[in-house]
UniProtKB/TrEMBL annotation:
Full protein name: Uncharacterized protein LOC130500140
Organism: Raphanus sativus
Function: The aspartyl protease (PR) mediates the proteolytic cleavages of the Gag and Gag-Pol polyproteins after assembly of the VLP.
Keyword presence, Signal: no
GO molecular function, one term: peptidase activity
Location of the Integrase catalytic domain: 93-182
Gene name of the encoded protein: LOC130500140
Keyword match Transferase: yes
Record's keyword terms, sorted: ATP-binding, DNA integration, DNA recombination, DNA-directed DNA polymerase, Endonuclease, Hydrolase, Magnesium, Metal-binding, Nuclease, Nucleotide-binding, Nucleotidyltransferase, Protease, RNA-directed DNA polymerase, Transferase, Viral release from host cell, Virion maturation
InterPro entries, sorted: Integrase_cat-core, PolX-like_BBD, Retrotran_Ty1/copia-like, RNaseH-like_sf, RNaseH_sf
Length: 182
């Protein structure tokens, strides 16, 4: 259940339906649809029959609905985990009377291994100079390959793939002039 109408795909409006919350308050369901959420490990999961309730202040996932959708649940000592086909897909920590989904395991892994994470705004490659430079280099290579070979622009995707392969197999100063072995 969520108050975020913009998350829904193929939205179906409803004129009836109530949900009883844990504080004994009834709220009206105004629609139903599917949504995609980023699950544990970064994969995208689709949840079906998700309710649109504008009065909610938090997003809620019904454990009963997950169970009916084939998820297995385990929980102990304030931690909850949901598995599908034996793989961990959602994990949460008890906060008050609700479980909040978390990604702490990845954060702790990065800290433990000395990995510094730098966050940027979504869809802004200009905030990452290294990625922007690599993208620019790949596109320059693609233009050169297409012009020199006389191939049509329709083959640009294959040319980008080939350019990335050539770049990755070339000696690099960042790995002491070595060539990656694939």
């Amino acid at each position: 259940m969520t108050c975020r109408r913009d998350w829904f795909h193929m939205f179906q409006e409803l004129t009836s339906g109530q949900v009883l919350l844990s504080n004994d308050c009834e709220v009206g369901v105004q629609g139903i649809s599917t949504i995609n959420i980023k699950a544990y490990g970064g994969s995208i999961k689709t949840l079906t029959n998700f309710r649109y309730i504008p009065e909610l202040q938090r997003n809620l996932i019904s454990t009963g609905t997950l169970y009916l959708s084939g998820f297995e649940h385990s929980g102990i000592h304030g931690k909850t985990r949901f598995y599908k086909n034996g793989k961990l897909v959602l994990q949460g920590t008890l906060s008050g009377s609700l479980y909040q989904l978390d990604g702490e395991k990845f954060e702790n892994f990065c800290k433990h291994h000395g990995i510094k994470r730098h966050r940027t705004c979504a869809f802004t490659p200009q905030q990452n100079g290294v990625a922007e430079h690599i993208n620019m280099t790949l596109m320059e290579n693609v233009r050169c390959f297409l012009v020199e070979s006389g191939l049509e622009e329709q083959l640009w995707a294959e040319t980008v793939s080939m350019s990335a392969y050539v770049t990755n197999m070339s000696p690099s100063s960042t790995i002491d002039g070595s060539i990656l072995v694939g």
